[in-house]
Design goal:
The protein is α/β, with parallel strands linked by helices and about 240 residues long. It has 7 helices and 6 strands, in the order E-E-H-H-E-H-E-H-E-H-E-H-H. Helix content is about 35%, strand content about 10%. A 6-stranded mixed sheet has the order 2-1-3-6-4-5. Strand 1 and strand 2 form a beta hairpin.
Length: about 240
């Protein structure tokens, strides 16, 4: 069982947390991680690009010069896409780039991304992270004590904490997200991940629940008991048969 050091706000080790990457995901599927990250990046596209076709640009539709006898190549109107000021041959149109992969695949990719960070020793645990009021200076002191300054960082908390968010939002390269807001993209993008112990516990419990549900769904259905044979019909009495 691998263990991660738990630090306090002053950067002093105060304990150990035992966890294996397999506790979050049985394996790390790079293709699934790639597909989910591409999905998130595609969903960030605005899709508002638009250019004019040859039917939309200003200009005459008259043929520029006669077809033969000039020594030049054949040419149509000045709106042609091969001429300056003409329309685009394959004009861009606004489109929606968003799409969605299956929910369970996206959730599994999130756990795989965190498992990959744990395997590469890029996750740092802190016992608790809370502020009485937003204070960027206090957050900067904590990051310096943990030797996390100067690198891209994701701070993950168990729940949405307004004071933590406001204390870190002005620090360059630092992003704050609750456990409910974690995904494969914001986990893989930064170099390091700072998590509270409660946040890691929440992710771990969700992984246990998901794995137990998957095992139950894969379990074979119970075989039905064989139907009892019907008793033979009673023979009619001899008197009744004679009638």
């Amino acid at each position: 069982m691998a263990s991660i050091s738990i630090y306090n706000r002053g950067g002093v080790e105060v304990g150990k947390y035992d966890i294996e990457p397999t506790d979050l995901a049985p394996s790390i599927n790079k293709q699934l991680l790639h597909d989910v990250v591409v999905m998130y990046q595609s969903n960030l596209r605005l899709g508002t690009a638009r250019t004019k076709s040859r039917g939309e640009v200003a200009g005459s539709t008259k043929k520029m010069y006669r077809q033969k006898g000039t020594g030049n190549a054949r040419a149509g109107s000045r709106r042609s896409g091969i001429r300056r000021g003409g329309g685009h041959i394959f004009a861009k149109r606004p489109r929606d780039w968003t799409y969605r992969l299956p929910r369970k695949a996206v959730q599994l990719a999130t756990r795989m991304a965190l498992a990959a960070k744990l395997r590469d020793s890029e996750v740092l645990l802190i016992d608790e992270l809370a502020f009485d009021a937003p204070k960027t200076k206090d957050m900067a002191v904590i990051l310096k004590a943990l030797k996390l300054e100067g690198s891209t960082l994701l701070v993950a908390t168990a729940d949405h904490n307004v004071n933590v968010y406001k204390s870190a939002r002005n620090i360059d390269g630092v992003e704050v997200a609750p456990v409910a807001g974690l995904n494969a993209l914001n986990l893989l993008r930064p170099h390091r991940v700072l998590m509270t112990k409660a946040a890691l516990e929440a992710v771990r419990s969700a992984a246990r629940k998901s794995q137990s549900t998957a095992k139950e769904s894969k379990a074979p259905a119970k075989a039905k008991a064989p139907a009892k044979a019907k008793a033979p019909a009673k023979a009619k009495s001899a008197g009744a048969a004679a009638k």
